[in-house]
Amino acid sequence: MRTVDVERTIPAPLPDVFDWLTDTTNYQRVPFVRRVTLVRPGHTTGHGEGAVRLIVTPMIRLTEEIVEYRPQEIIRYRLLKSIPPLRHQDGFISFRQVSRGTRVRWFSTFEIAAPMLAGLCTAVTLPIIRAGFIMVMRTAERELRGA
Question: How distant is the alpha carbon of residue 35 from its chain centre?
């Protein structure tokens, strides 16, 4: 298993940052994201616990379920399906108010589920996943600054 762990301070209020990053329909405005679909709404809120979302990019297709949703603190997800096939151990986005805005940490542990060369495939995929997380956070920052 390999880990992607990205942190960024977004100069915007915590409620705004949390709302933007947990509403994956916003991701459609991120470079290279082709489609985002809320397959099933959450139990108490659309993108909250129990929600299932589909995210499609040129390199990867993910179906995720939100398993923990604490407003303005954390959203934790698990992978249900993916192309290429991934084994996913943990994934979350946490939020913390700081003096310059909101500190966001996006964490995911995964590996490519390949019968051969899984380690190599995972190592090649790691920077792509990291770049994706960074692009999402940059888009959130750009849009929240303009709000």
Answer: 14
H or E segment and range at residue 122: helix 118-146
Q: What are phi and psi of 19, to 5 degrees?
A: -60, -40
Rounded to 10 degrees, the C-alpha dihedral 90/84/3/102 comes to -70
Place of tokens 């990867």: 60
Backbone φ and ψ of 26, nearest 5°: -65, -25
Segment 43-65 shows an average pLDDT of 94
Label residue 132 by pLDDT band (50, 70, 90).
very high
Contact 75, 92 (CB under 8 A): yes
Residue 32, Ramachandran bin (φ over 0: left; ψ between -120 and 50: alpha; else beta)? left
CA dihedral 96→107→19→55, nearest 10 degrees, is 170
